């Protein structure tokens, strides 16, 4: 029994052991010349090394004097023995000579798969292997009835053409797999199709709804002009701008022309109605001029002070003075932004003649205060009652020297027409450069001489600052 590690129930006597392998002898042979016994395989290996002496007493050996020891072999075969798989759990015990018969049925013995799949396993695991794991087991497909080996059956699963499956697009349809491709192409409600107009993909059951909104869907001009290539997203632009038969308004509609005609007739209308259009444009220009003047006035009111104080900066002083001296400027009088004496009070404005006016011409700078038409004139006391102060500010550094501002103050004379309630629009032409005395405000023709302005920093960085303040006395109401 070569190759087996025998497990005897009791220790065999020494005569049963091979001197070479020191294990119970297997197929023992005896040397007749010396009487020593060895395993047949152990002695053959020993002699194959070229040594022809007895391993025990080193006497010469003769192959003719070596013969099987059948009596000893029978004694060894009759010894009680456990199964070689006893440690794995086999409980078999019997005579040694019965071991081979037991191994042919032992559940713990390792055997090869009878299907020759190259797998070796315990005999007890063989039924499970043959039924479920063997790559070469024979199986029948429940759907098509074909027979396959285990490995081929696993590959066949999931591709069997006769297996019933649901549509991959989740439309709910169920069919055999061989019909699935045709269904996905021509029958499935959830298959994807490209829109023939915009080329984007949509589900079959939604593409018709899309085509009702598709921006590239071909449309016919509602005016039936016959223009090809109109799509839904260009239809409105075509009707408004490109259609030759569309009804359009006259280009002078903003000026007031109400004419409406096909686009092809616009040119003829423009030619025939030129005088009418010119008249309409003149009216539009006049209206816009009045609107601009009103907007300008409102802007000045919004940007002006409402606390009775105006600080007016006159830049480019030397250039403006030279223009006033040579009279190259169209307007000799400069005007400040409008300001209010107080909230909901009198609307005022300061003007200046850099080269003087009246008695101060060519030698002084003249400063005047003008009362303008205001929003709240109907609620105010007339004539204008408050004291007014003009100041030319000294722009020296206060840290180095004390500023010496030039200040003049006056109280309004109630008999002067300058302080009466102004008529709306009465001062509409003052910005045209008119020097009519009736248009002037009240002030100082000789506010400050040109020579005195040079003595200190009244002119700095080619600019001067004129300050006007209204001394508003709050009345105590009983």
CATH superfamily (homologous) name of the domain at 304-471: Apoptosis, Tumor Necrosis Factor Receptor Associated Protein 2, Chain A
Mean pLDDT over the residues:
83
The coarse overall form would be elongated
> What's the CATH architecture name of the domain at 304-471?
Sandwich
Measured on Cα atoms, how large is the radius of gyration?
63 Å
Distance between the termini: 142 Å
Work out the number of β strands: 25
| Beta-strand content | 15-25%
Counting DSSP H or I runs of 4 or more residues, the number of helices is 12
Largest sheet: 5 strands, antiparallel
Kindly summarize this structure in a few lines:
With 478 residues, this protein is α+β, with helices and mostly antiparallel strands. It is built from 12 helices and 25 strands. Strand 19 (339-340) and strand 20 (347-353) form a beta hairpin.
């Amino acid at each position: 029994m070569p190759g087996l590690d025998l497990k005897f129930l009791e220790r065999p006597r020494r005569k049963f052991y091979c001197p070479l392998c020191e294990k119970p002898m297997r197929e023992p042979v005896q040397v007749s010349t010396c009487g020593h016994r060895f395993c047949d395989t152990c002695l053959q290996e020993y002699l194959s090394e070229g040594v022809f002496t007895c391993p025990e007493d080193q006497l010469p050996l003769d192959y003719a004097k070596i013969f099987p020891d059948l009596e000893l072999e029978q004694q060894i075969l009759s010894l009680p023995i456990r199964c070689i798989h006893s440690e794995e759990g086999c409980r078999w015990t019997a005579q040694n000579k019965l071991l081979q018969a037991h191994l042919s049925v032992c559940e713990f013995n390792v055997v090869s798969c009878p299907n020759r799949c190259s797998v070796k396993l315990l005999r007890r695991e063989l039924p499970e292997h043959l039924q479920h794991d063997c790559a070469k087991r024979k199986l029948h497909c429940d759907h098509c009835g074909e027979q396959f080996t285990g490995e081929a059956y696993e590959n066949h699963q999931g591709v069997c053409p006769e297996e019933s499956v649901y549509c991959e697009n989740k439309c709910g349809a169920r069919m055999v797999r061989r019909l699935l491709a045709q269904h996905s192409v021509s029958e499935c409600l959830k298959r994807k199709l490209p829109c023939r107009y915009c080329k984007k993909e949509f589900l079959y059951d939604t593409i018709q709804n899309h085509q009702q909104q598709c921006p590239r869907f071909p449309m016919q001009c509602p005016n039936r002009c016959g223009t090809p290539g109109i799509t839904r997203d260009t239809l409105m632009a075509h009707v408004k701008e490109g259609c030759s038969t569309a009804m359009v308004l006259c280009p002078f509609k903003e000026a007031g022309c109400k004419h409406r005609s096909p686009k092809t007739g616009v040119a003829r209308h423009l030619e025939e109605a030129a005088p009418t259009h010119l008249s309409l444009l003149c009216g539009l220009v006049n209206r816009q001029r009045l609107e601009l003047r009103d907007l300008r006035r409102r802007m000045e009111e919004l940007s002006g002070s409402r606390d009775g104080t105006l600080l007016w900066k006159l830049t480019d002083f030397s250039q403006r003075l030279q223009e006033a001296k040579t009279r190259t400027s169209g307007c000799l009088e400069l005007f400040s932004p409008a300001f209010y004496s107080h909230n909901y009070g009198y609307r005022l404005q300061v003007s200046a003649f850099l080269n003087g006016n009246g008695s101060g011409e060519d030698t002084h700078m003249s400063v005047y205060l003008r009362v303008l038409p205001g929003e709240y004139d109907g609620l105010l006391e007339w004539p204008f009652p408050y004291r007014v102060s003009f100041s030319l500010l000294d722009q020296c550094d206060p840290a180095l020297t004390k500023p010496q501002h030039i200040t003049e103050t006056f109280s309004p004379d109630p008999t002067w027409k300058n302080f009466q309630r102004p008529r709306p629009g009465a001062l509409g032409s003052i910005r045209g450069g008119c020097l009519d005395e009736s248009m002037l405000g009240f002030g100082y023709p000789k506010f400050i001489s040109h020579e005195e302005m040079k003595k200190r920093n009244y002119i700095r960085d080619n600019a001067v600052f004129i300050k006007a303040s209204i001394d508003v006395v709050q009345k105590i109401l009983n």
